[in-house]
Structure formats: C-alpha cells, structure tokens
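Quick one: structure tokens for this chain, please?
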Amino acid sequence: MKCRSTHNCVLPEDDAQRVLKMIQWCDALVVGAPCYWGNMPGHLKLLFDRMVYGMMGENKLAIPVPMHKGKRCVLVSSCSTMWPFNILANQSRGVIKALKEILGWSGFKTVATIEKAGTFRHAEFTDKDRKKAEKAAKKLLK
C-alpha cells in the first residue's frame, strides 16, 4: 500500500504511470473494452489496479475519496453475444458495470454508455452505432 500512502508508484515508470498522468490531466475520458467472460479484459483491470493510488484516496477512517470528482466519462463495450442476451447474461453489461464501479469511486460521472452486441455476426459499424457515438460525444462535451 506504499503507492497509496505516498500517491507515487514505487515501481519503475511504465505505461501505467503514463496513462495515469493523462487521466489526471483530462477533463473527460472514453473507455472502451470488449467483453471477456462478462467483464473487462484482464489487462485493463490490471491497469486500473496499478493506478488505484492516483484514482482514489482515502480519509483517516479508510473511506474512499475520489480524486477525479467532476470529470465525465463515456463507456463503450462490445461482445459477440446477441441482443438482448448480452444484457440478460451480463455480457457487455458486466463490462459497463465494472467500469462504472471503478470510475465512479474515482469521481467520474458516466454521461453515456454504448454497448455493441452480436459482433460475431454483425461486426460492422452501422448508422445506428454512429448516432449513438455522436450522441455520447455531445454529452461528453457539455
């Protein structure tokens, strides 16, 4: 827990610290992740685990304190499972839920989510997908 107590990573600098610096400087964030077994890919989870010291702190009672309060985010997920089973089986919805949890405790407000289901048979980016992305971008820029 040395990283959390000092707000500085004890490991040699790598991409995790560089990504954290970008997140600290951003006003808004877009996180996209495919669904792997109902959750985000392990490498993305590992990245968030490595950056926890710069995402949220804690007060003297060990209650989490968000370090990015007031920032906005859009979350995007895709999965091969067809709609509505991607929702019912917590496939893409599992990714969104996990990302909301991490970013919410960090202080980010999720302004939009985009879930693309059925990519196994329909991987193309449709006009409907484009409209969802444009709507999410407008919310992010408000």
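The CA atoms of residues 64 and 105 lie 7 Å apart.
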